[in-house]
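Intended use. Records like the one below are meant for learning the mapping from a protein sequence to its folded structure. Do not use them to infer anything beyond what is encoded.
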Amino acid sequence: MENSKRFDIQNIRSQFPALHQQVYNKPLVYLDNAATTQKPQIVIDRLKTWYEMENSNIHRGVHYLSQQGTVAFESARKTVSTFLNTKFTHEIIFTKGTTDSINLLASSLGKLLVNEGDAVLVSGMEHHSNFVPWQQLCIERKANFLVVGITGTGEIDIEQYKLLLEKRPKIISIAHISNVLGIINPIEEMIRLAHNYDIPVVIDGAQSVCHQKIDVQQLDCDFFAFSGHKMYAPMGVGVLYGKEKWLNAMPPYQFGGEMVSQVSRQETTFNELPFKFEAGTPNIGAVLGLETAIQFIESVGIEQIAVHEEKLIRYALKKLQEIDRLRFIGNALKQASVISFLIGDIHPYDLGMIIDKLGIAIRTGHHCAQPVMEYFGIHGTMRVSFAMYNTFEEIDTFVAAVKKAALMLE
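Structure written out for the chain above:
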């Protein structure tokens, strides 16, 4: 059983070549995992094998490589379906990433449901990728763009959310975990409340899918989007899960290639799911790399990863509290492996530049979430984010570097 698996941090780290390098003659301490994760050798090898030996275009081809590629590609779809526990394999749509998935929904689901005078609801903690597409849809359709606020601790204002539901928005789109605050939103409750009004709910799972077990049937979300590169897979590939009833009802997002069934001068009929939403040649190698990354995560054990990362974040919070004038941005009880903070009047970029020279990679700035910054009255934060391969010793090195940089900048 998964719970019996031993979490061997040294064995895990040994499988990530990027972690075993020096920058500025210092061992790399990589703590920018919310932006992108490093890749295990097994994922890198999968891409290499695809392009060296298996490269072909999939579907419709009759030759050996095309047929083998098609089988591998559709096997990857089944792997993702099992990983998310979807009801049907064809509910998995391959995209370029979370941004692409949400733009697909804003275009297609928006066209289906949103008309002049209607409303779409998001939260004030969204990544721009789950904010701007819906905002622009509302501008285009002359609809109302509703934004539920956040509390002083950075959590969604659930009481305001309940009030906004009475306005009967046509679509709700919410982040599972904030990429700035690390706060885990109560999406189960939010989905349940929305479904009382028959409102479909989109979940941006970019920051949650590699940190905890996702069961879309248990959540009962209508859509769930995530990116491969934030879960040890290649860049340029992502997933959109959608309930069959919605995907069947939605018009296509893009036209051409595999998404068509029959074409004449007079009309075109579209392919069945999932191909209806997969126009053009997909990023096949990256999809196979995503499958390999999922298999790698499962070999380690998602529950073991979650336990390890929980210990890391608690340890980091404790150590960071030792730093004078440091304040955390967001302070919720349910928090995933992201911490944002500021120190006095020190500009995040200045501190980030100094600790970079000490070999430590963190993220500074607004993290593509300017509405969050506006709410807290700041321009940006320093953000540290953890993955399965990070260690307590790396946190000690990071905190020592922050202390040193803070003294230099005061």
